[in-house]
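task queued by scheduler; priority normal; single chain, no ligands, no partner chains; default sampling; output format set to structure tokens
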Amino acid sequence: MSGSKVLALGHHQPPRVVTNADLAGMVDTSDEWIRSRVGIVTRRIASTETVDELGALAAEKALSAAGTTAADVDLVVVATCTATDHCPNTATRVAARIGCPAPAAFDLNTACSGFCYALATADHAIRAGAARTVLVVGVERMSAVTDWTDRSTCVLVGDGAAAAVVVPSEEPGIGPVLWGSAPELGHAIRIEGTPPVFAQEGQTVFRWAITAVADLARRACELAGVAPEELAAFVPHQANLRIIEPLAKKLGITGVVARDVVESGNTSAASVPLALSKLVERGELPSGAPVLLFGFGGGLTYAGQVIRCP
């Protein structure tokens, strides 16, 4: 096979919904303040669900949609920056939960760009002949690393997971990845300390995203031989509506623009596949249509590729 494709997607979010009004009862904030600055209205927050449990539930839905079973999976790649433990990794725990018998399994941590990194890694593994059926999972429990007394960060986060089943394809359905980083700005988004706590320099991240990401996303389109105006959808990292909408305008996107941040908040490595899975589930994208995925965040890392919609 000359490439790979996304065969199916699946997602899962905790049932607990936290509104802006709920947060206003916890910290000095308001619905108007949150909506005007980041565009978030609600987010899902885990109660007892673990990172690997969230990932497994999304994986099972993706496998069901693909018409395949866990026994067919020979590689599991989990993108997360909120793994519960150092070892065993989340990927093996997800594999155990879904009954995957003997996969290669590893975690990948590039925070908010993680799913796009993991998807590229799956594509490369299939092209190299190292895997045939790859389960790629983006999952986060950001609530576990959040300071709920810090109004600048606690209003942003959400929990959730989404997964993709990636298989060989004669016609490549996953385009070349554009990935990289701005390590000199790595301090701008952090999960540090004991216990680890999420912190960020919001204005630094905002300025970098607004000035740099559009050109990077355009280069990802060029690698795939697709013009931005030809895209059926643009699915960027769901960080902030004030970043997403200007990016879409700069790129000249005429297709669907994912805005899942409004109902899900910032779910880091889960945000791109979660938004994409919802668009597919709602029937908003035709099969085979070109979609630009672009993740950016902690590190500062970025990655993007054009895929064909399953």
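post-processing summary
- The chain has a mean pLDDT of 97.
- The chain has two domains: 3-169, 178-308.
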